[in-house]
Amino acid sequence: MRYTPKSELDQRVAKLQALLKKQDIDGALIIQNADLFYFSGTIQQSHLFIPAEGKPLLMVKNTFERAVEESALDNIVYVDSLREILPTLQSHGFSGFKTLGFELDVLPANLYFRYQELFRPAKVVDASELIRTVRMIKSEYELEILREVNTVQAQLFPYISANISEGMSELKLAAMIEAFYREKGHPGLMRVRGFNTELHQQHVVSGSNTIPSYFWGAVGGRGVGPAYAQGASHKLIGRDEPVLVDIGFNVGGYSLDQTRIFCIGKLADHLTQAYQVAIEIIEQIKQMAKPGVPCGKLHELARQIADASPFANHFTGYPNQLTFCGHGIGLEQDELPVIGYKFKTPLEPGMVFALEPKFTFPDGAVGIENTYLVTQDGLETLTVFDEGIQYV
Amino acid sequence: MRYTPKSELDQRVAKLQALLKKQDIDGALIIQNADLFYFSGTIQQSHLFIPAEGKPLLMVKNTFERAVEESALDNIVYVDSLREILPTLQSHGFSGFKTLGFELDVLPANLYFRYQELFRPAKVVDASELIRTVRMIKSEYELEILREVNTVQAQLFPYISANISEGMSELKLAAMIEAFYREKGHPGLMRVRGFNTELHQQHVVSGSNTIPSYFWGAVGGRGVGPAYAQGASHKLIGRDEPVLVDIGFNVGGYSLDQTRIFCIGKLADHLTQAYQVAIEIIEQIKQMAKPGVPCGKLHELARQIADASPFANHFTGYPNQLTFCGHGIGLEQDELPVIGYKFKTPLEPGMVFALEPKFTFPDGAVGIENTYLVTQDGLETLTVFDEGIQYV
């Protein structure tokens, strides 16, 4: 078992504390699984209090024993109910709160009302942007894990090439991919932050199954029916059509995001040409992407290259197009930064994001997706694998 | 593709309208995927307005075309942004709201603030209990789907018996099960309503991997690490130990929940004896469970039988025990009713719930889970399959 080291947790907590102080927030109460894991090393059912100054306090309901085993934090106590949280904080010297930060981007309204009541007269404010800002910059420890993700992830594509066949359903291919990953330790779930946002372990669509879906992606897919209306369907994979596989393995909670195109046979010219434009986009973005450049500039460049091609109306979706072509990734699939229209955040070493220039046509979707690390010198590819169309 | 029929949607809407009127709520705005699917037949990104009186209005952002294809509702319009919702409602004759119901049990606080602002001076109240109450009683249409779930679900257990082997990792077995289901059309996701509640497609744990987890279940499991800390792990399946498989197939959005125990070889006496107590519990509950009996009585009876056995301290978890042994199921895994301590809701024909008496020991967990339909005459088993331990 890999446990997050104490030094790592200390650094993360210190970064959040600096932001809390700047905003005059007395402390943050962290509850959501991904954030809880990031700052405490455990997702055992807990409230993690991070004071603007002082040592964090992990208050655990279920299970205390595992939290103690998994978390390297110094102060871990058992707390049975919500009502005990305030007295527990007080008994550890934390009281007289004026402002407390919560994850109001994910905390359900009914729970918000309860916390507001419990901590009255303190003001409950949103700390989610601060938390997501800290999480945006990955540490060496996190990068080590992400590199480990790639060693497994890179084994998948040759496995697909060896096992994909004409007449196989998209669902059968999805099942094979998931089983390949699951046996190697994929948790079987992917965390996403956005409300109502649902992500399957993979996104496998072929040929004409590229209709847009309720999900904000360039490539939709029918899914198995109107109740789960995206991605792989019962459609059979045919010859001479693109099979888009968008996937990420997971190690220690962390994912990379990667897309490759497979084809049994030969692709029509508009698809191979559009694929080349996607390659051109990542190549040119790699030239531009240095620390200090605003994220929005990268999307702008992608958009310009797509607009100058014959496939402008197919970039990031068809008939509707997205206003972004990349997203931060790590413990969740929708982390900061957003590589999208008007996003001003300047690139900074340690940022990790997926870039996914894709072109969607009624007869298929093509494109490439890699996850990149921002370094002092520019982008480093974390999803290292052959970048061409994978012909079978 | 199966689309929810108009008559079905009409009935559901009418039921909610009756409850809205009773509570003096002018209408409900429904956004969350499971609820949206239930009342409109689509999960395309939408706001569904159900007035206390009159026809519902589905306001769709993404994608309009699929919503029109999938939903049998009469009034479907395109709406580009949140700001357009109120004017759109007004232009359809809905205005002067005093009280509006939202799904405040799942709606994130930040979104709640936005809606509150947009609909000022209307009061935003919680309609989630009303929605969940309507969804609690399944229609003939829904029961037809649930029976179809069982025809696939019942194929899984012989497949496991034929393929499980000593030395296979729990993850390998989980991968096999998921692939078996996925190819047949399982969406690859399970919807749960509770905040921070995460459910994998299956729960596969063997022998000693029964330590409690952050999840509210009788049987925990290590999972793949502290970031995803429940269920199947790299542990190898051994001889003479129980392998607990807790799973549900999904058809048209609906799941059943079912648990069976597998064993390669022979189980220790305390495990087979505890299994018999679990069987005794479902048999006795079946005698008691008639319309009108409060749900809590069923749990009370289960608890009494467990307490009278030598395994009282192992019922619904060890060392900590749960205060429920069953839960409603359908589009979500945690629907009403709750078969738990002090729950007063009387049984009613059309309720569907899983009953899962389980006993957890340091060397393994045993028990059984079936999903039952409440009829005028008592319980009907929806998860029809041999109820003994599956020896291999």
Automatic annotation (TrEMBL), chains A, B:
GO molecular function: proline dipeptidase activity
Residue ranges occupied by any Creatinase N-terminal domain in the UniProt entry: 12-137
InterPro entries with a match to the protein in the record: Creatin/AminoP/Spt16_N, Creatinase/aminopeptidase-like, Creatinase_N, Pept_M24, Peptidase_M24B
Leading EC class: hydrolase
Pfam families to which the protein is assigned, alphabetical: Creatinase_N (PF01321), Peptidase_M24 (PF00557)
Documented EC number(s): 3.4.13.9
Keywords, ordered alphabetically: Dipeptidase, Hydrolase, Protease
Source organism, top-level taxon: Bacteria
Peptidase M24 domain sequence ranges: 145-376
Gene3D superfamilies: Creatinase/methionine aminopeptidase superfamily, Creatinase/prolidase N-terminal domain
Name of protein: Xaa-Pro dipeptidase
Species in which this protein is naturally found: Sporotomaculum syntrophicum
